[in-house]
Amino acid sequence: MSKAFTRETDAEETDDEIEAPPLPSGAKNYVTPEGFRRMQDEFDQLRRVERPKIVETVAWAAGNGDRSENGDYIYGKKRLREIDRRLRFLRKRMEIAEIVDPNRQAGKDRIFFGATVDYETGDGVAKRLRIVGVDEARSELGEVSWISPIARALLKAEEGDLVEVRTPKGVERIEVLKISY
Question: pTM of whole model > 0.85?
Fold first, then answer.
């Protein structure tokens, strides 16, 4: 069969949700104002800067003749599919996003969405994390999703509370030291 009649990327084009974990059924897509702004900025960057550059490269490469062995054309088309997939994903997530401003939290003595929590593990190691939305969690910055096991265990706890968290190693007890918003 000729290569012209086959699709190279059937699996890639059908899976829009591959880039972020799905939300639990019935859960809302909570996001902080900063996280929503980052999603908007990424969407605008892709749509206004990156996509036009790639379209220009693909158009130039297509004008060079034989497309079957044209690396600029082949990789440009692949990158265009990736950008379009990410744009669709971001658009869907922003449409269902529910922006929650942690600064407007009424009960700041308890841990809720958007809280920064200082805690101590059973080993005596002090750590800090911030509870954010699924789409904005960045573990390298100490931001965890509100649906993560540690965040679920900490929600509604107060300073001084001992909380049990299920980890792959077993159950760990942690003490809440400080809560800030």
Answer: no
